[in-house]
Amino acid sequence: MGLEIFLGVVVLLALIVGFRSIRLVPQARVVLVQRLGRYHKTAGSGPVFVVPFMDKILPIIDLREQVEPFLPQAVITADNVGIQVATVVYYQIIDAKNATYQVVNLVGAMEQLTITSLRNVIGGLTLDRALTSREDINAKMRVVLDEVTEGWGVRVTRVELKDIIPPHDVQQAMEKQMQAEREKRAAVLRAEGQKQAAVLQAEGEKQAAILTAEGKRQALILQAEGDGQALITVQEAQAQAIHMVFDALNTSNATPEILKYLYIQALPKMAEGTANKLFVVPSELEGIAAMGATFAAGGAQNGQPGATTPARPAIERTGP
Fold first, then answer.
1. Is the pLDDT at 316 greater than 70, yes or no?
2. What is the four-CA torsion angle of 225, 227, 229, 232, rounded to 10 degrees?
3. Which of 120-134, 174-188, 269-283 has the lowest mean pLDDT?
4. For the segment 135-176, what is each residue's pLDDT rounded down to a tens digit?
5. CA 289 to chain centre
């Protein structure tokens, strides 16, 4: 019975020792092993075997990139404006041994280093420059932090200015300035729009005037062509009428006396209208006109045509 108890105790102790001698480390993490209080080794991911009661495993260290936000800190710019600046530091542990043994509090040391670097960098800039040069400030701070933390086994990958908070009165002044700038840009845009509208309207009016003038020009050309064609048609008709008259006279064997009589008969019709006209009376017709007047006077006294008054010649119609 006593032997069984002893064996049971031995097995239990063996299980305890075995359990304490094996540890599992997750991926992308490492552990430091101390033996008798001194650094022994750095163990990576996977199972780690240690000597019970002699080796001690320190807390697991994460090798992935980590983010550490820091609270806003008071900073004075080159133009003596007090502002609050909040930062975010991205870092990665590349040497777990140095990160453990070279610095007591890694995150606290990085925070104090960030505050000091921030005050040095922004202290040489004006407020306007600090507000508009975040990329430059981030780059300068990353270089400074990376140089110092390299001895701690840490690599600073990025530093970001999370927020820059100026005093309340400065914020109000900046808001007024921004409002003025927005109003200025709006006025410029309105002026540009009005200018473009005026230019477009002027171009439209110009094109309309050109089209109107072109239309009038075409209308005048067409009217002139029409008038010319009409005049040609009238002249052709008159020429044809003259040819017809000459043909009729040639075929009717009209005597000169008949032609003279017809000319006298046509004079009243030629005198109709308001236009001033000048008629040339052939010399051969003067005697006939005088003789006609004498006969008319004699006929008026006797109430009948004179005996010597020649009778109006009769013109026979040869055609229908």
1. no
2. -140
3. 269-283
4. 999 999 999 999 999 999 999 999 999 998 888 887 788 778
5. 93
Domain boundaries, the chain: 2-61, 65-166, 182-253, 266-302
Asked if 11 and 31 touch (Cβ cutoff 8 Å), the reply is no
List, for residues 8-37, the tens digit of each pLDDT value. Answer: 777 777 777 666 778 888 999 999 999 998
Q: Which residues contact 128 (CB under 8 A, 6 or more apart)?
A: none
**Residues 127, 129, 132, 133: is their CA dihedral positive or negative?**
negative
- Helix, strand, coil: what percent of the chain each, to 5? 60, 20, 20
The residues that bridge with 131 in the sheet, in sequence order, are none
Number of residues in the chain: 320
Residue 144 to residues 96, 107, 158, 213, Cα–Cα distance (Å)? 21, 16, 11, 77
Asked if residue 263 has pLDDT above 80, the reply is no
Rg (CA), the chain: 63
Phi, psi of 303 (to 5 degrees): 80, 5
List Cβ<8 Å contacts ≥24 apart for 170-176. 170/81, 170/127
Half-sphere exposure at residue 268, Cβ-oriented, CA atoms within 13 angstroms: 3
**For residue 126, pLDDT beyond 80:** yes
- pLDDT at site 227: 84
- The pLDDT confidence band at residue 4, using thresholds 50, 70 and 90, is confident
Record: fold of 65-166: Tetrahydropterin Synthase; Chain A (3.30.479)
Backbone angles phi, psi at 163, to 5 degrees: -160, 145
Measured CA to CA, the distance from residue 144 to residue 118 in angstroms comes to 10
